[in-house]
Write a structure and sequence with these properties.
Rna Polymerase Sigma Factor, Chain: A; mainly alpha; about 0% strand; globular
Length: about 210
């Protein structure tokens, strides 16, 4: 596939070239979104589980690349696949696999081991820990909304639910996050400042959720 002179190829152009047999285009597509996948998994799993799920997600994309019809952005499709891989992993690792419900259980419920993310500021540590204590689907909602700047419409595609339901879940997620922060010992001024500037706090820890080891 020919790209516009001087312009970076779009995700869809790279995907088209990859489908046509250009393995370099596939590698470029993965490299472009690798940090986002790291962020998606890093605060939900510990140890080698992150690398394993990144590999599983990329393998699923390789095996099913012909199924993407372009009805949404490639990023939306990427996070949809990643979400399915995450939930499958949590079911495999849970004590009661048949009863895993991402709208009820948190990653802390499944595996209370600490996150592999290391934050220097107390507010950052509290926020990361609190996110792990709300239902995993609501954690996904907040992290994709604040870290990846996905719109409510894009989140609807990732979660495979109506956009109105997404907006309800964003509000519910913030309420539960506030409760989790309070339970973790955030004082009133600290709690207020963290929630009032949630978007800024979330974005300030976005980079440490990338390729952190």
């Amino acid at each position: 596939m020919r790209y516009a002179p001087g312009a970076l190829p779009t995700d869809i152009e790279l995907l088209g070239s990859w489908r046509a047999g250009d393995t370099a285009a596939g590698s470029a597509l993965f490299e472009r979104h690798f940090d986002a996948l790291c962020r998606f998994f890093r605060n939900k799993l510990a140890g080698d589980g992150v690398d394993d799920l990144i590999q599983r997600t990329l393998l699923a994309l390789v095996e099913n690349r012909e199924q993407f019809r372009g009805d949404s952005s490639f990023r939306t499709y990427l996070f949809t696949v990643a979400r399915h891989e995450l939930y499958a992993a949590l079911r495999r690792g849970g004590r009661d696999q048949a009863r895993f419900d991402p709208l009820v259980q948190s990653v802390h419920d499944q595996a209370p081991s600490p996150s592999t993310l290391v934050a220097q500021h107390r507010e950052h540590r509290l926020l990361l820990d609190a996110l792990r204590r709300i239902p995993v689907e609501l954690q996904v909602v907040l992290e994709l909304y604040y870290w990846e700047d996905l719109s409510a419409a894009e989140l609807a595609g990732v979660l495979e639910i109506p956009e109105g339901t997404v907006r309800t879940r964003i509000r519910r997620a913030r309420q539960l996050l506030e409760a989790a922060l309070a339970e973790l010992g955030a004082g009133e001024p600290e709690l207020h400042s963290t929630l009032a500037g949630l978007e800024d706090w979330a974005r300030s820890i976005r980079e440490i959720a990338g390729r952190a080891q």
